[in-house]
Specification:
With 260 residues, the protein is an alpha/beta fold. Helices cover 46% and strands 15% of the residues. It binds nicotinamide-adenine-dinucleotide (NAD).
Length: 260
């Protein structure tokens, strides 16, 4: 969809060497955008991934290491790229524990990576978007930005926070050709979610299929995972002219979760 209409634009996607970030980057690349992939690692395979996508999509793709738990590295990622027409704040981690047992350092890490990083990247990107006369900020929030689950205090707080940040960014840019929106996915079968399966199997004495159906997809009425491609296409839509008046809001891609 939307063949090549992002040609000449640069998209920076945080946390994009796997999962949703990679899926979103790939779709933006298919629509013609040059890409900056990011994570906190500096491995040959990170750069090989960028080279493979460049060859496949026919756009420029760079991999830039930056740790989204560190304010200065968030801002440098944007500034050193030199152009940022589309910013996708996607990097995220999860930790599951009851509040009294939730390690303080895990709370700090989840808030830093899932929420504060988006503040720092957006602060660095908005002046560049204003200079270019166009911009899109897309925050990957979650159904947990609109609802809560027990044992995910930091994640739910961060995701509600990013929905709030989305509204403020939308208001601060409302008179400009810049929009900011949050995509709120339900469950997507990425490494982040796969990593939760063994613990849940042990906790409830279930096999893998039971965990998927009875725990992960319990609140997803469609009983299907959302896909990274669907999220990527939603991001591409938000970059289109059709979405120019959509700002400061959320789009759920959650199989009906938040309708319950
Ligand atoms: P994932 O683990 O596959 O990807 C997370 C990405 O973030 C990876 O590329 C990882 O390297 C990167 N990352 C982690 N810590 C980082 C750091 N300090 N600095 C830079 N990058 C870092 O997970 P995912 O499921 O693709 O999650 C992506 C986003 O989507 C997250 O914000 C997550 O909360 C959100 N989300 C996921 C789901 C789901 O079901 N998978 C649902 C709703 C929202």
């Amino acid at each position: 969809m939307f063949e090549q209409f992002l040609k000449g634009k640069t998209a920076i996607v945080t946390g994009s060497n796997s999962g949703i970030g990679l899926g979103v980057a790939e779709r933006l690349g298919r629509a013609g955008a040059d890409l900056v992939l990011n994570s906190f690692t500096e491995r040959d395979e990170d750069h090989a991934l960028a080279d493979r996508l460049a060859a496949e999509l026919g756009v420029r793709v760079r991999y830039v290491r930056a740790d989204m738990s560190k304010a200065a590295e968030c801002r440098n990622l944007i500034r050193q790229t030199g152009a940022c027409d589309i910013l996708v704040n996607n990097a995220g981690i999860q930790h599951v524990a009851a509040i009294p047992d939730f390690p303080a350092e895990k709370w700090d890490a989840v808030i830093a990576i899932n929420l504060s990083s988006a503040f720092h990247t957006t602060a660095a990107a908005l002046p560049m978007m204003r200079e270019a006369g166009w911009g899109r900020v897309i925050n990957i929030a979650s159904a947990h930005g609109l609802t809560a689950s027990p044992f995910k205090s930091a994640y739910v707080a961060a995701k509600h926070g990013i929905v709030g940040l989305t509204k403020v960014t939308g208001l601060e840019t409302a008179r400009e050709p810049i929009t900011c929106n949050a995509i709120c996915p339900g469950y997507v079968l990425t490494p982040l979610v796969k990593a939760q399966i063994p613990d849940t199997m042990a906790k409830y004495g279930m096999d893998r299929d039971e965990v998927i159906e009875k725990v992960l997809l319990e609140r997803q009425p469609s009983k299907e995972f959302a896909t990274t491609q669907q999220l990527g296409d939603t991001a591409v839509f938000l970059c289109s002219e059709a979405a120019a008046q959509i700002t400061g809001t959320t789009i759920s891609v959650d199989g009906g979760w938040t309708a319950l």
